[in-house]
What we know:
The structure is a single chain. This protein is mainly alpha-helical and 107 residues long. The chain has one domain (8-105). It is built from 4 helices and 2 strands; from the N terminus they run αααββα. The chain has helices at residues 8-21, 25-31, 36-55, 94-105, and strands at residues 76-79, 85-88. The chain has a two-stranded antiparallel ribbon with strand order 1-2. A hairpin with a 5-residue loop joins strand 1 (76-79) and strand 2 (85-88). The model has no long low-confidence stretch (mean pLDDT 80).
Amino acid sequence: MARGKWSEVEARGVLEAWRRSGLPLERFARQRGFVPQRLQWWKRKLAAAEMSNALSPATELSPVRITSEPRRGEPVTVLLRTGHMLKVAHGFDEEAFARVVALLEGT
């Protein structure tokens, strides 16, 4: 798991991995090398955001059309079901990436 600040997407992925693990929060966090308070903080923050969204009017999604290719050099972030986050640059080796994903997901 990434050191430093987590994005909301990363935090949601880690929380989902913790829920699926069935482990106590403290044990799950320590096994992955971060303090349990970090996960507890995100759990509270996201619960508060969901409560706020429940009180807001429904959001309507609009279709999006991509008009240009992504800039080269910007990594693509992949959040796995296990809570692991992988960042790959343009032109990555797809076979090696597939092996890493399989290894991390235990398949």
